[in-house]
């Protein structure tokens, strides 16, 4: 079992997330990791750093590995999906260096994570933050809880929306485990 972490770009002040264009009808891009989220929300923002043959591989929560060109690959990580990790002075962040000496960074408007530059500046630095437990809360009537205030009629929650650091004291909670999240079902109030 590997610890799940969030990767935050020091320069962009955003978190890396798995991007799946198949869920976005207007896009024709391929699956990628992008530095695009202000909040590390849900299973797409969780990554594992795996030690493989003296180097580190970045694994997404759907069991694929980030390659140096920004693509994702299943199975054991190939050589171009492993990186050395460099700790920068003063705790400024970590830099992930590929075998050709280039560092991972968010590239372009969409900030697709790729190995691009041969020196590690602020753009190439990431902080690794603890991935906090996340849950989905479903009421007895099947409706999901939202944290968006005042938008109950306009905003519909999906199973991929999560609540961070939930502290609840409900009785008779039913918890269903899933690969990517825990589902908490609240009992009907009497």
Structure explained in plain terms:
This protein has 190 residues and is mainly β. The protein folds into two domains: 5-130, Trefoil (Acidic Fibroblast Growth Factor, subunit A) (Trefoil), CATH 2.80.10.50; 133-190, no CATH class. Helices cover 0% and strands 39% of the residues. The chain has no helices and 16 strands. The strands form six sheets. The protein has a four-stranded antiparallel sheet with strand order 3-2-1-12, with no helix packed on it. β6 and β7 (72-74) form a beta hairpin.
Furnish the topology, listing elements before pairings.
Blueprint: E1 5-9, E2 14-19, E3 32-37, E4 47-52, E5 55-60, E6 64-66, E7 72-74, E8 84-87, E9 94-97, E10 103-107, E11 112-117, E12 126-130, E13 134-138, E14 163-164, E15 174-177, E16 182-185
Parallel strand pairs: 13-16
Antiparallel strand pairs: 1-2, 1-12, 2-3, 4-5, 6-7, 8-9, 10-11, 13-14, 15-16
Helical amount = under 10%
Mean pLDDT: 77
Quickly give the CATH architecture of the largest domain: Trefoil
Number of domains: 2
Within the largest sheet, what's the order of strands? 3-2-1-12
Class inferred from helices and paired strands? mainly beta
* CATH third-level topology of the largest domain: Trefoil (Acidic Fibroblast Growth Factor, subunit A)
- CA(first)-CA(last) distance: 41 Å
SS field, number of helical segments = 0
Number of strands: 16
Main pleated-sheet profile:
4 strands, antiparallel
What gross morphology would you assign? globular
CA gyration radius, whole angstroms: 18 Å
Work out the strand percent: 35-45%
SSE string: EEEEEEEEEEEEEEEE
Question: Which ranges are low-confidence, i.e. pLDDT below 50, for 5 or more consecutive residues?
Answer: 149-175
Report the top-level CATH class of the largest domain. Mainly Beta
């Amino acid at each position: 079992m590997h610890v799940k972490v969030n990767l935050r770009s020091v320069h962009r002040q955003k978190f890396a997330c798995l991007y799946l264009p198949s869920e976005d009808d207007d896009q024709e891009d391929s699956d990628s990791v992008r530095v695009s989220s202000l909040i590390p929300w849900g299973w797409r923002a969780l990554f594992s750093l795996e030690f493989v043959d003296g180097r580190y591989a970045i694994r997404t929560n759907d069991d694929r590995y980030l390659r140096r060109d920004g693509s994702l690959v299943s199975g054991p990580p190939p050589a171009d999906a492993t990186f050395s990790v460099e700790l920068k002075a003063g705790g400024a962040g970590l830099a992930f260096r590929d075998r050709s000496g280039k560092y991972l960074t968010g590239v372009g408007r969409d900030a697709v994570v790729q190995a691009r530059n041969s020196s590690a500046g602020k753009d190439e630095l990431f902080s690794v933050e603890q991935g906090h437990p996340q849950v989905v809360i479903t009421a007895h009537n099947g409706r999901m809880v939202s944290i968006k205030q005042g938008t109950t009629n306009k905003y519909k929650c999906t199973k991929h929306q999560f609540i961070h650091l939930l502290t609840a004291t409900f009785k008779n909670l039913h918890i269903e485990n899933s690969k990517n999240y825990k589902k908490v079902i609240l009992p009907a109030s009497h």
